[in-house]
Amino acid sequence: MTIRMAFIVAGAYAALKSQVARINALNVYPVPDGDTGTNMLLTLESIMKESKSRSFENVEAAVKAGARAALMGARGNSGVILSQMIRGGCEVLARRATFTAEDFAAALEGAQERAYASTRQPVEGTMLTVIKDAATAAREAIRKAEGRALDLQSVVKVAALEAHASVKRTPQKLQVLREAGVVDAGGLGVAVILDGIYAVLSGEKVEVPEDDAETSDTPDLEAVHAGEEAWGYCTEFMVTGFSGEETSFRDHIESVGKSVLVIADEDLVKVHIHTQDPGSVMSYAGRFGRLSGVKVDDMEAQVESRLSDGDEPAGEPGHVAQGEVAVVVASRGAGNRRLFEEFGAYVVEGGQGANPSAEDFTRAVEEVVRASGAKTVLILPNNKNIIPTAEQVNDLVDVEVRVVPTKAIVSGLSAMIAFDPAESGESVEGEMLALLAELGTVEVTQAIRAASVDGFEVAEGSYLALINGRVGAVGKTVEAVALEAARLLLADGGDLVTLLRGEGLEDEELDRIVAAVESMDGDVEVEVREGGQPLYPLQMAAE
């Protein structure tokens, strides 16, 4: 059976894209970092890129390609969990030669099992619950048929309707959703994906009951292409029917460019490279099979555009410290990039609202190992939503990768004090974790909507301080909430406060904050660093 994987994935992608803004807005905390829908969309986009203009002769070939593409493209917590759902479903379908109603129900069960197994502490009232309820509904529909054959469309529709009903119930299962007055964003994403699958199979929309209905726009199948950050030409392509020797092929590709990623899967090889001569690279690769999925972007133009906006290009190998251990960090802001590079870290651009993918981290790890000779690479995600993505990387590279779970940029900068490239990875990781255990952090941002969260009533447009990840102060100005947060942090002790200045904080207000913090305790030293991070005008650490 010939399967055009792109056909079904495009339906799911189109449905999700039409709802991505609404899903992003369903953030428990009313801060401008909602990116659940975007992360799920980019995970599906990775499958679309892999399958575009390709047909597969059997289910096994299609689902294996889809599972790997989802993993490589996964971003953020929601994207990683979705990639595991896709992987679980694909593992089931790979053992089957058909795609019937029974196969679909089994695939949903596989998705549920893999998603729950990949989550350290599964929480009900999330996208996990939604996929479980959808799988249960599909299986129950087949059971009730009592041997009568059900068509695939009918079972997909049942699963989609139950997914929407499950989304509506998520606040009943999770208090934080109930307090915030929202449903689970990832769960809604799962329901919308099932809508898209049904639409592409039947040519009809799922008629969600009126009180469950979500707004919808006309689906747009245009892929979202993220800009690469490097010089020369970012070149990507696949070699199908690969007939060469993998090691020698990889060695040659690595010798003619940088930021090289060569992923082999049986007779399919995916290549990513930054090179000044993409034509010669593709000419060489073309000797070993048929090229497809070719994409060439001019990095010079993209870098010039970024620099004109005050940002800097991505980290290069020359910034990386040589030794036994190397560090890769995710960060945003030109000042933060400089600070991390001065410590000897390799910076991957990403953070709130722009989560890097597993492929981004994989590429960075492989490049930093080539540049530093490190045996171990530590990843500092600097954002709670990026931690799950970073945790996938160890299975994708040949070097040991350890994740130090930093949840803010200011935490990552504090942890870098313990970095010594001459020490072992285990030793540096232990010292970083010890520093983080004694660290208190504050992130100040502006509320994008009204909400009731962590015992605070937050008005739209007001400022709030997240103290160690929870709302601890609310006020009308950055100064007001920053000083209240500083007072709470210093109540537990501390002799050094680091202020990391982001976009939008004026000199006069920063000066007043510094003076007020210093006056709280005569023994407290205050350091100010220019970070330039968006969305968060001020981050603070006390140690």
UniProtKB/TrEMBL annotation:
It comes from the Bacteria. One of its GO terms (biological process) is glycerol metabolic process. Residues 3-199 form the DhaL domain. One of its GO terms (molecular function) is glycerone kinase activity. InterPro entries: DegV_domain_contain, DhaL_dom, DhaL_dom_sf, FakA-like_C, FakA-like_M, YloV-like. Signal peptide: none annotated. PANTHER family: DEGV DOMAIN-CONTAINING PROTEIN DR_1986-RELATED, PHOSPHATASE PROTEIN. This is DAK2 domain-containing protein. It comes from Rubrobacter radiotolerans.
